[in-house]
Amino acid sequence: MTQESFPGEQSDGMYGEAAMPAEPGADPVDGVEPDIAEAVHHIANRYGAPGLEQLIGAAQGELQDARRALESLGAESEE
């Protein structure tokens, strides 16, 4: 598993992650899926910085779960 980085740390891409190609439907300017950008703006407008902090914490937990699941699937396919 790779070490996670956070905003403000040195990285190749936005939010501390390596630069990734834009997915279908993504905004070509920043590579963020429009639905995701809208959700983030909604949280920021309704709950401010504390809401964004909660969103980031929740997203980091989901990201760890998704990475573990992906690793598990990879290990199962190698068996």
Topology readout:
Elements: H1 34-78
What would you say this structure looks like, in words?
Residues 1-32 are annotated as: Disordered. The chain is mainly alpha-helical. The chain has a domain at 34-79. The protein has one helix and no strands. The two termini are 19 Å apart. 0% of the residues are buried. Residues 1-19 have low confidence and may be disordered.
Q: Which key features would you list for this structure?
A:
79 residues, elongated
Brief synopsis:
The protein is mainly α and 79 residues long. The protein has a domain at 34-79. It has one helix and no strands.
Amino- and carboxy-terminal Cα gap = 19 Å
Q: How would you sum up the global shape?
A: elongated
Main sheet makeup: none
Number of helices: 1
The ordered string of helix (H) and strand (E) elements is H
Helix fraction by DSSP (H/I, runs of at least 4): 55-70%
Global structural class: mainly alpha
Name the assembly state: single chain
Any idea what the radius of gyration is?
A: 15 Å
Mean pLDDT: 76
